[in-house]
Amino acid sequence: MYKIVYAAIMLMVSTASWSHGGVMNEGNECKLRVGPYVMNFSGYQLNNNAPMQFCDDLPTTGESYIVLDFIDNKLRDMTVNFRVIKSDTAALGTSEDGLVVDSELKETPFFEIPAKRYPYGTMKITQQFTEKGHFVGYVIVEGENEKFISRFPFSVGYPEAGIPSALKIPIAMFVIIVIIMIWFVRKKPVKFNEKRDD
């Protein structure tokens, strides 16, 4: 009985890391790894999904915001270039998603933020996605004698399959309550041996 409850909880509220290339979901935080450096990665669509934060895929088209907060202070002294390229395919969900493709870097970007320094450690990006599609994002950081590139594919306008994240915990709680109620209803009452007077 306890194993069933435990399995249900783990399936519903699992916080295991998953990723699309350089972007990783670690519990409630999205991280973008660029070489040895790490940034917090947050995606928002205030007009369509105001309170929601997205780690990579954006579920609807429209105005979208991406915020990169530098965790490693050394990034403040380096230039950061952000570019997005159209793609014909969605993310594979494998380690291949993070492999830099030289031919993609030579393509004309769908949009690009030219390389510059961000001394306050925050890069804010606003982009209007008018049509759904698949894209590849690149973050390129350059400093004195070093250059690192992070690649992360993402999709726009394709709602997430399966149970939405916001519903996983309420559903898990409901399942647990139902299992406990069934357990109590089926539990046999304890019978005490009555002493008889002969």
Termini separation comes to: 43 Å
What's the architecture in CATH terms? Sandwich
CATH fold naming: Immunoglobulin-like
The CATH top-level class label: Mainly Beta
User: Secondary-structure element sequence?
Assistant: HEEEEEEHEEEEH
Describe it for me?
The chain has helices spanning 2-12, 102-106, 165-186, and strands spanning 18-20, 23-26, 29-34, 37-44, 62-70, 79-87, 111-117, 122-129, 133-143, 146-156. With 198 residues, the chain is α+β, with helices and mostly antiparallel strands. The strands form two sheets. It has a six-stranded antiparallel β-sheet with strand order 1-2-3-4-5-8, with no helix packed on it. The protein is elongated, with a radius of gyration of 24 Å. The relative contact order is 0.20.
What key attributes describe this structure?
single chain; 198 residues; alpha+beta; 6-stranded antiparallel sheet; 4-stranded antiparallel sheet; elongated
